[in-house]
Amino acid sequence: MLQNREAVGKIIAVCTAPEKGMIKHDVGEGLLLEELGIEGDAHAGFMHRQVSLISIEDIRTMMEKLPDLVPGSFAENLTTEGFDLSALKVGDRLKVGETILEVSQIGKECHTKCEVFRKTGDCIMPKKGIFTRVIKGGKVKTGDTIRFDN
Question: Facing residues of 78 across strands?
Fold first, then answer.
């Protein structure tokens, strides 16, 4: 998928979990707090990795190995569709719903292997996960658009 600055995708899930290490569940909408993350999520306030994103297209690829995967299975906060997250660079800004997010990290090192990795021998979050800081807070919900903040 060729990404340009005018590309528009959508949010198909907003996921949170009250404790770290738990699979996140789609709650439909959330309040993103400036420089913190999603209100009520265990990862809120974690330095520069305040809100995580992964695409449903990447989740579907992993579903070939583990069919019961759903949005939130990779502990992502926002599951996107139709927006090429792999084209993002650190420093890019995104407009999602009322909010503005800034890409702060791409991928991450997993020190403890997740349940998906234990079952399949692979996980997409270390390679495909996008981490952001909340620059402008506000509501985000399923169906909101995601686009570059030009």
Answer: 14, 53
Q: What is the DSSP letter of 124?
A: S
Length of the chain: 150
Residue type, 11: I
The domain defined by 8-148 folds into M1 Pyruvate Kinase; Domain 3 (2.40.33)
Domain ranges for the chain, please list them.
8-148
Query: Has this prediction a pTM greater than 0.85?
Result: yes
pLDDT tens sequence for the chain (150 residues) = 445 778 899 999 999 998 877 778 999 999 999 999 999 998 887 788 899 999 999 988 878 877 888 888 878 899 999 999 999 999 999 999 999 999 999 976 665 555 555 555 556 666 788 999 999 999 999 999 999 997
Find out whether 110 and 128 touch, Cβ atoms under 8 Å. Answer: no
How many angstroms separate the CA atoms of 108 and 110, rounded?
6
